[in-house]
Description:
Chain A is mainly alpha-helical and 289 residues long.
Amino acid sequence: MVDIRIKNLASALILLTPFLVLYTIFTIYPLAVAIHLSLYRTTPYGDYYVGLDNYVSILTGKDIRLNIGFSNVLVYGLFNAITLGLSLLVAWLLTRSITGKWSTVTQIVILLPMVVSWVSLGLAWTTLLSAIRNLGRAAGVMWLDNPLVYTSTAKWTVGALITWGSLGYATLLYISTIRSLPMDYFEAAMIDGASDWQIFRHVTVPLLKHIIIFQLIGAVVAAFNIFDPVAVLTGGGPAWSSTSVAYYAARQVQYAWNVGMCAAIGVVVIAIVLGLNLFQFRLIYKRLV
Amino acid sequence: MERRSLLIIAVLVVLLIVTNVATYFITSGAVTTITQFTTVLETRVITQTVTTRETVTVTVTGIPSPTPTPTPTVTPTPTPTTPAHPTPPPPIPQTELASLFPEPVTIVYWDGLTGGDGWVFDEIIKMFHEYSQGFVKVERTAIGWADLFARLVAIWRAGDIESLPHLLMTHTDEIPLMKPFLAPMDDLLRQAGFTKEMFDPISWERCVWDGKVLCLPWDIHPMLLYFRIDVAQEYGIRIPPPACEVYNLPCWDRPLEKLSDVWDWFVKEVKPKLPANITPTGWINGGGSWEFWGLVSKNVWAGKGTDEDPQPEFDGPEAMEVYRFLYEGGRQGIIGLYVWPDLANCLVGGQVFTWYHGPWMMATFDTITGGCPYGAIPLLKGVTWYQLHTFEITVRAQRDPKVLKAIEVFFRYIYQPDVHAFWGIRAGHVPTTWAAQPVYIGKAKELVGDLASKAREMWSFQVFQWGGLFMPHHPLINQINDILNTYTTNLVAGVITPEEAARSIQQEMISILEAWRAQIG
């Protein structure tokens, strides 16, 4: 019996070896290097060991810009969550209510931003928002302004871009999931006289709860990694008001050559994301399954 | 598969290809990162109506330098002098190039000139290639400034010397960051026949580090207050001297020598006369550090210390004056916040009356089809912030005598007065060699036209006669400017008061300095 187990284990390890090798090279090793780097203040002249100074600096909120980045995680996470809600609704409409050629047109419009790079999207928005301001000025409508210029509105504009740019992918995911749901539930609901909204609320959403929760947590995790929309639209400004954690970390390398701080931020984010994933695991697989 | 699904997929694929190809063509050649993309594309958006760029042929030899009237004294020090100065060595005769370079040599050259001045440098390289007949080739790559240094330092720290360029053009501010991989130029310059007497002394001095020449000064440039001539004419706005005389406009009562003069002019003259939909002046949100240095009357980083061993005074009276200027300017509608391309577009479009910015914008404004009737007003006697473009060679070039010789050939070509002056006039910078300056004065009208040459005259003579300061030299300069960018924007936006800004900026500067001292020593 033991021999069989050992034999099975050996077989499993052999089969897993390619994955383990690649995982070690591309995940474990970089993580180990990042943790090592995070203990140093890097400069063009050399690396200076600073111990946990970088972590202390992050966790005590020493740099206001990083604090803003962390607080913007909530803002961008909120927009990601709005995206999911909207995409679920749009997916439902596309599979039920909007049919025929209008369904084709709607799908193209919704999915279009998905195939355009963030750089192009950001450029289009920058041009559009500038044009709105210029038109306003020319017409003497002074309140019509470029929201990217103000610290109070810049991050919400970035969030709106994130929603617009991400809607397509999430909608596609929900469309395919809704179409894979067993029709029996819907037929039974229709026979019972349920309206479209009641079917959506009491049948569709409960059947999709695993994916919804999975994506909601993914939305918060993704908020740590927002980079492209911030870089293209605002450069983290004005006055760092729209910066994200990822953008701030990148700037540490570009402007301060402080690779150690960038690595420390990465390690902190990994720890947070790991915690979120453990929470998600317990929530989905322990309680809801 | 349903026909409808196929149609959707086909449309999406076509759109994917079209948008990505369009993005490539818009940004090709100079884009490696997203931040650089916006810098390049902003410039291209401004010039999208330009159909052709002017090609100017500069005769390499034999042009007599006209006697300028008035004779300028171009110096960054308050005491103007006009000593006799040697001319840079002439280009090596073309007939000798074949024997010097039995095989073609390529100089790998990087700079951060991604704007209008970059286009002018491309023209200079083209002129050089016509001269060098293929024996020496300069392979230029323009990278956004932030990425340039990050990339260079990353290459250096990775030990990948062969990936370094041979030749760089940067600013003297960044020398502290780049010192580890820069090679001294003393031997190269001696071999080529360059001496310090050929250059204005302030520029040369900024290139000597630890007794060695680490860079060769190329141009010097302070910031300028651009203004729309037609808007001034339409609304009867009086312009401060000496600009009023140069542009033949009614004169305001005094030049803008102090920040209080600037404030008075905006409050008493400009704002009352402009309509509500034209902003008196613009401020780039997130980009106010250069402007801060241009307005502050003291090196508040060094304070009572030095650049290398500073005692920051960002809460001192000189800095407070700037904070109050920005705060009240934003509050009273004098200063409007803009993103970068908006501000350039708005000045060109006439919705912003003035803009305090670098001279490199001239190269861009000059290419606007239909013209952009801009003028320039010099600001702040004795304190206008200067910046230097300089050439550096790396340790990679130092290893290869053939490349060093090729760099010598390149320098001797581009530093000849006509070419150096061409750069200065077209790109909007002042050449640092004495010999180029009279040519610069004499040929400005010919190369850029009467109106544009006046802006060059205003800035290059008047500002230099007034004297100025240089940006601090410290490895933390980028972080210092990041902090200033944050707070200057917040001041104009009215989010913080001058007192809060002073306290916060000083705290942050002390904090990064202490961390640097503790960690690096």
